[in-house]
Amino acid sequence: MSKYDNPMSRQVFSLPDLIETQYDDLEEKARLVLSFQEIFNIQRIVLTGCGDSYAASLAAKPIFEMLTGIPTEVVTAIDLSRYYCEKHMGVDCRNPLVIAVSNSGTGARVAEAVQRARLHGCYVLGVTGNEESPLGMHSDKILKLNIPEFEGAPGTRSYMVSVMSLLLLAIRFGEVRGRYTMDQAMDYRYDMRAQGEALRKLLPQMESTCEKAAEEWKDLPYYDFVGAGFDYAAAWFGWAKMLEATGKVAMHINSEEWFHLNFFARDAKNLGTVVVGNTTNPGLSRTKEMVHYANVLKRPLLVVTDGTKEDFNGEEGTYVQVPAPKYPLNMPLTQFAPVCLLAGYISEMIGEKYGRGCEGDWSFAEGGAGVKNSEIIVR
Amino acid sequence: MLKNYKLETVYNGVHDITEQLIQAVEESGVQEGTCLVYNPHSTAGLAVFSPWDPDGFVDLDEEIRRLVPTRIDFKHQHDTPQDAAGHIKSALLGVSDGFIIHEGKPLIGGSQHLYFLEFDGPRKREFFIKIQPDV
């Protein structure tokens, strides 16, 4: 165990067991939460949530489309609650299906978004651990999460469970709609559960690599998180964890947009750049080009991949290996682990409190007040 | 004697298993007796049917579907609509067929073949043949 062991890293080390136990809890629930009729009724899907739940939606969106063939959007809670076009809600008999994710269920904006969605005729599936929460009360159906208590840290366990619940729903929708056989669906599920063991085997390597990177990067003032398509959610999530855990300035972008924007940043040698690039990603060639030019700019570089340095043309940098599942759809369950370790170790090394400890100027956010206490407007 | 056979089926596949039946009886050496063919699955059936016009299988498939359409309002919701329909088709058609063994061969007519009917698929399947001599 690292001498910089911290609540966030302990959450990461609890993930293998959590993957296995949560799979056992959620598989049956995801199978039965919607009936055949409800699943066949789906014409479009909107995934919504805030913060980590939004990242989980980003991770699951391409999987929903790949497995179900149903057009799927990720819409932020405020966009759904205040801006989403009314003409696109309540069509084709209670469509789109809005899947709203929030473990606590108490965020004001998600509660507002689902109320508006239902007002205008959408069907709402809430994914939450709190049936009595505003999200729970304003959902047509609830996929009930049951995440065991753990010491507090920027959401790591809850993110994995959100991703898993969405992936299980996607697998189920595709199975019921006859996109593949029940045997194939079960193989996807078995592979999902197997990611617990796959992660368990790689964690010692991840720990040492991320601890060393954190030592080298702890005094850097900025960080940039890059990933495309299937990997973008992990990059987005890394940005979020770095902000929450360390309070340092961070950015996130996809590998194409990086060439249009983020590469302009000056002081490149002090800009820690984390690239998420799995070897099955259709956008890998662009990510490899991005890695090359990050080196040209002499940026400190950490690559999170299921492959090796050779998969990136031998480009210099620190490489962290994440599990390579049999089915890439299960990649999002584990590929975020290194960014949590990195952020947690840096936070520990520099003595920074998570979320600034909700102290001083940050005290308004105590107990999640910043996201719970907001005027609800439903129209 | 009990023999086990493996099958890899296709979606709604019709698999002729007459040869396995004849072979199993021959290998048993039983001249007079009975034999039972058994399918241990709940979404597949066994049927004796004429092999001579392939369109006959289309008729059979269509009639089975007419009797048990794949609906989405089945009460059994644990798996898929196709699976729910498959359970009923299997129950209606049955999972076993018995044959008389006479002079070392199964007594089957010239227009009779034995078929393993897949109501789901593709799946890895199996069936058993039990042969008993007369006492």
Automatic annotation (TrEMBL), chain A:
The protein's Enzyme Commission number: 2.6.1.16
Alphabetical list of InterPro entries matching this protein: GlmS/AgaS_SIS (IPR035466), SIS_dom (IPR001347), SIS_dom_sf (IPR046348)
Residue runs in coiled coils: none
Catalytic activity: D-fructose 6-phosphate + L-glutamine = D-glucosamine 6-phosphate + L-glutamate
One example of a Gene Ontology biological process annotation: fructose 6-phosphate metabolic process
A single GO molecular function term of this UniProt record: glutamine-fructose-6-phosphate transaminase (isomerizing) activity
Annotated keywords: Aminotransferase, Repeat, Transferase
Keyword Nucleotide-binding: no
UniProt KW Hydrolase keyword: no
Organism superkingdom: Bacteria
UniProt protein name: Glutamine--fructose-6-phosphate aminotransferase [isomerizing]
Native organism taxonomy: Bacteria, Bacillati, Bacillota, Clostridia, Eubacteriales
Automatic annotation (TrEMBL), chain B:
Xref: Gene3D superfamilies: YjbQ-like (2.60.120.460)
InterPro entries hit by this protein: UPF0047_YjbQ-like (IPR001602), YjbQ-like_sf (IPR035917)
Family per similarity comment: Belongs to the UPF0047 family.
Identification of the protein by name: Secondary thiamine-phosphate synthase enzyme
Organism (species): Lactonifactor longoviformis DSM 17459
Lineage of the organism: Bacteria, Bacillati, Bacillota, Clostridia, Eubacteriales
